[in-house]
């Protein structure tokens, strides 16, 4: 339990993927197999059920610590977390307990079926055998509030480093229906699975953001341009009668999109398609945040599938008739891909990304200015003679939306205010619509911080309301309706373009101007 508590605290204190992966590898290298299995389960969302009510836990800790309810409540207000408040309120333990994580969880599972008196006795004994950090983690487990938000790719990467097994094989094994109570680390992670070889994706050809002038790419005739929609990059594989979906992050996502299971009967074997999973309804793309909301659901209901249906928008063909064709030039692969689509009757699930015809970079640049009319987020630019993968794949973002907005709030991070809330006019009132924390140069950020400190009107924790005087130009890549925000809008990647020091407050845009941008 000491090692697991150390892991929990290490994961909690950093958001750096590399540091989290290192911490997991270190834990797996020294932990017993049953404990490894439970860490995998906890990181995958499988956690013990709450064994008793929060009110009972509070009652028991107040009794054990000899403190009144009002004092515990005040302590919780300061600490902010119930599990941590309980851990800190109790006397220091009088004895040591050497049970491992898996043994503690078995104890917790047994307590779920016990009477209240036995639960109380066992929990009081546990509190008396654990130091405050381990108590904190134990309390998270018994209260049903345990969370370890670690991306599946980090877990997969750590297990790959620990075992020496390829990451996509690990992802395949973790995608199966399994329970830590019915499986073992040996069977789940170390044992070969029947579908691993046929499900294996190819390494993705990564799109690089085009940051310079498009003319720097050279002769226009050497390139192929296509539309890009907002979605989830993936490879769709059909081999030996089975369909698999892999995300660009090397995560097997087949269970998240059961619609594509129908392709088992529509596609020939030996096909690998590269493209994007697009939220698509009534022949038009849906906002990308709706796809994210669907993916985040732990249980995929029929209702969410009907609200956010999806298609696979194909951009490339990597395997055909069980033959790897990635070494062929892009132009040849495109010809074969178009021929493939002439013989596939899966339009409800598969679409082909259209190409853009132009005579030169200037004409293509003009067409780019209007691509938002097709709900495109940008263009792809690919060398026609390139194999797959290649370093000659670029993403040319659509021109951003831009508005003038008024600074309303600033939030501190360390010694500086770095996150800012902006507003636009709605009749005679300023309505917050976006937060941004990037775009200002160091000198400007320091100047703005000096101004904020002189113009604070209200304080809300780390947030400061300021006198509405400053106007900024804000850029963003998408705008959607949202019931969660006061403005009724949500923005995609808002950022500060410039501090408009010469603009008057009344020159800021109005809410109606933003609403007019929504298709």
Written overview of the protein:
By secondary structure, the protein is an alpha+beta fold. The protein has three domains: 2-143, DNA ligase i, domain 1 (Orthogonal Bundle); 208-397, D-amino Acid Aminotransferase, Chain A, domain 1; 401-515, OB fold (Dihydrolipoamide Acetyltransferase, E2P). It has 19 helices and 20 strands. It has helices spanning 2-13, 17-30, 33-43, 54-65, 69-79, 82-89, 101-111, 116-127, 132-143, 152-163, 167-174, 185-190, 196-199, 288-296, 302-307, 330-342, 361-368, 442-454, 511-515, and strands at residues 208-209, 223-228, 232-239, 242-247, 271-281, 284-285, 310-320, 323-324, 350-352, 378-383, 393-397, 401-413, 416-426, 429-436, 456-460, 463-466, 471-476, 478-481, 489-492, 495-499. Strands 3, 4, 5, 6, 7, 8 and 9 form a seven-stranded mixed beta sheet that branches. Strands 12, 13, 14, 15, 16, 17 and 20 form a seven-stranded antiparallel beta sheet that branches. α1 packs antiparallel against α2. It is globular and about 80 Å long. The model has no long low-confidence stretch (mean pLDDT 90).
Give the % helix.
25-40%
CATH fold naming of the largest domain: D-amino Acid Aminotransferase, Chain A, domain 1
The radius of gyration computed from the alpha-carbon positions, rounded to a whole number of angstroms, is 27 Å
Query: Could you give the count of β-strands?
Result: 20
Low-confidence stretches: none
The structural domain count equals 3
Average pLDDT reading: 90
């Amino acid at each position: 339990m000491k090692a697991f508590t150390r892991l929990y605290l290490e994961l909690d204190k950093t958001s750096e993927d590399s540091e989290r992966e290192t911490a997991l590898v270190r834990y797996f290298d020294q932990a017993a197999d049953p404990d490894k299995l439970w860490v995998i389960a906890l990181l995958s969302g499988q956690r013990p059920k709450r064994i008793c009510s929060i009110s009972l836990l509070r009652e028991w800790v107040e009794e054990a610590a000899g403190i009144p309810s009002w004092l515990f409540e005040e302590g919780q207000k300061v600490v902010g977390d119930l599990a941590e408040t309980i851990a800190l309120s109790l006397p220091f333990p009088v004895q040591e307990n050497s049970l491992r994580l898996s043994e503690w969880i078995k104890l917790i599972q047994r307590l779920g079926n016990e009477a209240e008196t036995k639960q109380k006795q066992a929990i009081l004994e546990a509190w008396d055998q654990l130091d405050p950090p381990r108590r904190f983690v134990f309390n998270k487990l018994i209260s049903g509030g345990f969370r370890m938000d670690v991306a599946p790719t980090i877990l997969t990467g750590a297990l790959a480093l620990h075992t020496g097994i390829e990451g996509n094989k690990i992802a395949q094994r973790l995608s199966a229906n399994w329970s830590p109570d019915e499986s073992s680390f040996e069977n789940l992670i170390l044992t070969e699975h029947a579908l691993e070889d046929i499900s294996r994706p190819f390494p993705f050809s990564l799109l690089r953001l085009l940051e310079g002038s498009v003319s720097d790419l050279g002769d226009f005739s050497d390139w192929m341009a296509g539309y890009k929609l907002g979605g989830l990059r993936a490879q769709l594989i059909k081999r030996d009668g089975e369909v698999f979906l892999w995300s660009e992050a090397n995560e097997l996502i087949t269970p998240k999109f059961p619609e594509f299971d129908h392709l088992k009967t529509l596609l020939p074997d030996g096909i690998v398609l590269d493209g994007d999973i697009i939220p698509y309804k009534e022949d038009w793309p849906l906002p990308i945040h709706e796809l994210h909301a669907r993916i985040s659901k732990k249980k995929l209901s029929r209702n969410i599938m009907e609200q956010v249906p999806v298609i696979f928008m194909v951009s490339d063909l990597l395997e055909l008739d069980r033959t790897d064709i990635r070494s062929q030039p892009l132009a040849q692969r495109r010809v074969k891909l178009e021929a493939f689509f002439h013989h596939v009757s899966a339009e409800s699930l598969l679409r082909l990304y259209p190409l853009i015809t132009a005579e030169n970079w200037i004409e293509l640049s003009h067409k780019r200015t209007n691509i938002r009319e097709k709900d495109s987020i940008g263009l792809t630019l690919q060398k026609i003679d390139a194999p797959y993968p290649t370093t000659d794949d670029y993403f040319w973002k659509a021109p951003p939306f831009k508005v003038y907005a008024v600074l309303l709030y600033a939030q501190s991070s360390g010694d500086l205010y770095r996150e800012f809330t902006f507003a636009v006019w709605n009749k005679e009132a300023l309505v917050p619509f976006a937060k941004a924390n990037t775009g200002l140069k160091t000198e400007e950020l320091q100047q703005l911080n000096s101004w904020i400190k002189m113009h604070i009107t209200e304080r809300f924790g780390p947030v400061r309301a300021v006198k509405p005087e400053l106007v900024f130009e804000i850029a963003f890549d998408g705008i959607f309706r949202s019931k969660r925000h006061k403005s009724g809008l949500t923005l995609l990647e808002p950022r500060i373009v410039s501090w408009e020091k010469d603009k008057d407050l009344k020159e800021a845009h109005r809410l109606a101007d933003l609403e007019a941008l929504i298709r």
